[in-house]
Specification:
347 residues; alpha/beta; TIM Barrel; eight-stranded parallel sheet; 15 helices; 50% helix; globular
């Protein structure tokens, strides 16, 4: 008998919970107005943004305490989280072989035997995308041939965003031509720090046009923006310029994705939806390596934005190690034991 069965959480109950979570999230989805086309720049609205740090931090501190997800429901939410991962490798020693192995993991993110033990083998589990540097895009496209898993490329001078502007635009063009269907660009932080919202708007607008049909995620490097108020202002500017997602971090900053930052960004997304009719996605990245953290982010999204955002078209995790920890938690649910990380290789 498995540990889950001893606790009363049988594989059948876990599978039932998983299907209810998956079906429930889909049932909440209301048809969107369409891809975010952006709006004219409203400087009064942007400059009028405010952020009460103490209140935001108090709210963020309650997310993992007031609402608890246990046993088979935790398993269901973790399986859901897997489908929202942009499985990422951004290492200087990446090779075609390594990214091909990552693509294989993207196809089968959780071991088939573990899915069978959970009664979830028929869910068709896969990650949201595979995210790599532009030079690795052709190798991932080849490795994923025949699968509808998008290839995502970081571009526009990642991670600092300080290469010449024309070069950043051309990098986007090249990634899209190579087969990238999603582009994660990094903004020029000095525009935010100097309050030059027109320059930031024009920059993101140009990147959006360069993407064509590929979806644009704007990385704001929130740990380097100086204040939560600047995070709110940058969020609004990027959305007005047509970003499909706003993303916290490159993963290279000293401070990456935090729940207070996530709250500010989620509330900006909610207000922009009310103003424009467009839904914009949210992507925390950097420092989200534990299953517990993933659950806290899912709770944040559920409470601040609603069930419509709990699917891959509107919420992503930018992660590499997160998937391994989720697999460890799923195995613990089945066996009652935590396995070593080397049992869950990514590539």
């Amino acid at each position: 008998m498995t540990r889950a069965a001893k606790r009363g959480g049988t594989p059948e109950e876990a599978a039932s919970s998983s299907r209810r979570v998956f079906a429930g999230a889909e049932a909440d989805v209301v048809p969107m107005r369409g891809r975010n086309a952006g709006t004219p720049l409203d400087l009064d609205l942007i400059r009028g943004q405010a952020a009460n740090r103490s209140a935001i931090e108090r709210r963020a501190a309650t997310l993992g305490k007031r609402r608890s997800v246990k046993q088979e429901w935790q398993t269901a939410w973790l399986l859901r989280a897997v489908t929202m991962i942009d499985l990422t490798t951004l290492a200087g020693d990446d090779t075609p072989g390594r990214v091909a192995r990552l693509a294989a993991k993207a196809r089968r993110p959780v071991r088939p035997g573990l899915l069978r033990a959970l009664g979830a083998e028929d869910l068709g589990l896969r990650v949201a995308s595979v995210c790599v540097y532009p030079t690795m895009v052709p190798a991932v496209v080849e490795a994923l041939a025949g699968d509808d898993i998008p290839v995502c490329a970081v571009a526009a001078g990642f991670p600092a965003g300080l290469t010449p502007f024309a070069q950043r635009v051309e990098e986007i063009h090249e990634a899209v031509e190579a087969g990238a269907r999603e582009i994660d660009i990094v903004i020029t932080r000095r525009h935010v720090l100097a309050g030059d919202w027109e320059a930031l708007y024009d920059e993101v607008r140009a990147f959006r046009e360069a993407c064509g049909d590929a979806h644009l995620k704007t990385i704001m490097a929130t740990g380097e923006l100086g204040s939560l108020r600047n995070v709110a202002r940058a969020s609004w500017t990027c959305m007005m310029a047509g970003a499909d997602f706003i993303k916290t971090s490159t993963g290279k900053e000293k401070v990456n994705a935090t729940l207070p930052v996530g709250l500010v960004m989620a509330r900006a997304i909610r207000a922009y939806r009310k103003l424009s009719g467009f839904r914009v996605g949210l992507k925390p990245a950097g420092g989200v390596g534990k299953a517990k953290q993933a659950l806290e982010w899912l709770i944040l999204v559920k409470e601040e934005l609603g069930g419509a955002w709990l699917e891959r078209s509107l919420f992503r995790f930018g992660a590499s190690s997160l998937l391994a920890d989720i697999e460890r938690q799923l195995e613990h649910h089945v066996t009652g034991r935590y396995s070593a990380y080397h049992r869950h290789p990514l590539g």
